[in-house]
Amino acid sequence: MPTIPGMFTALDALPFADRLISLRHALHREPELGLDLPLSQAKVLGALAGLPLEITIGTGLTSVTAVLRGGRPGPAVLLRGDMDALPVQEESGVAYASTIPGVMHACGHDIHTSAVVGAAHLLAARRAELAGDVVFMFQPGEEGQRGAKVMIEEGVLDAAGSRVVAAYAIHVASTMLPLGVVATRPGTILAASDSVTVTVHGKGGHGSSPHLAVDPVPALCEMVTALQTMITRTADAFDPAVLTVGSIHAGSAFNVIPEMGTFQATVRTFSPGTHRKIQAAVKRVVQGIADAHGVRVEIDYQANYPVTVNDPAEAAFALATVRGLVGPQRAFQAPQPVAGAEDFSFVLEQVPGAYLMVGAVPPGTDPGAAPMNHAPQAVFDDRSVLEAATVLASLAAARLAKASSDAVPAAATNPAAAPDTAPDTASGAASNPASGAASGAVSGAASGAVSGAASGAVSGVASNPASGAASDTVSGAASGAAE
Q1: Residues 340 and 367 in one domain
Q2: Taking 50 as the threshold, does the pLDDT of residue 416 lie above it?
Q3: Is the domain of 176 the same as that of 65?
Q4: Is residue 54 flagged as an active site residue?
Q5: For 454, which of 17, 33, 40, 264 could close a Cys bridge (C-beta 3.0–4.6 Å)?
């Protein structure tokens, strides 16, 4: 029996298992990039058809926002599932591998999307018990296009009629975390991600006569090494920063001084204050070296994603809820943040919430040696769809129950704060002009691929305790889990 009001178990998800895994396979076969995901949007709309949802689609991107109205009055919470893939040529070897050359769901977003669909089915089945509403946020463009920010601008946080009081998202890991193990932490959980492109302009010439040219290469090289020194002298050892130069180019021949050279870097920081300091320091160091060498420099510094910060109270609530769901051996507090980045950070800048990691390493695979997220060989176990769906549904239901419980003292002293009945506004609310185009989008997409998946969904998930995992597994699991 559930230990917290509104909680779900993997057994509750079994009736939906074949549909959810078929959806996951269909999404995986036809991955899409960026903000325009028409095939994925159609599959999601088809999978939600028939549920008592108020559905809207995005205008600046192919998002789907669905609102489930609870049977009792209360606030709204949000569950996010990102839908986009990566420009990676798949080498996983799975039967449902990508059919789109050069594009792969290498970060598990097909599982995130299917899990939020699963949460919608689970919660709709208990709609009468919900003390409030649930917003389901199906988001394109997580992998660098700021899709969450676009959806916020289009009103997703207020889709239920008032601002959501909490927001939750999960991310599956293809490495380090055994199947079904869950980790989160209060405060910073993921880094801010910035990109830097530096272009140095000199004056070309013959390699034998550098005194007649203005060589950009020494300046370029000095900038790269000086930036590493700057990081060690600027960032607090307990509030670190990472700067990695991943690309450097100059010239085309061994005996020619080029006109220009360029390098590109990623910068990761873990607090807003350090983020500001490092951004200013990068510009100062690069400009100073350019001036010293007599070259002209262009600095394109892009602040991409802010720090992902879990609200301490929501993180504690989420961890307690998940421990009640899966047991204390399979849910733990991560000891430190990781340097991956996420645009769910934009949501958590606006409302309190929590971001959680869920293990998806197939049983029989060594979690420490499994290919990480973003790798062409990354494999995510189907059963993580059910695990993630029950985690998300339980978080939403338990959070609404908590809000209702917290409101009892106020209602006792103020009868007007607790109306006897709530109108059933969701009746017939699922009218969706786009659903006709989507009907059947998932039907038969993975015929035969899910045989036996439902019957083993619980036993396989439960056989991966997290003993000994908490001290060092999250860093590797999450470092490639996001942008």
Answers
A1: yes
A2: no
A3: yes
A4: no
A5: 17
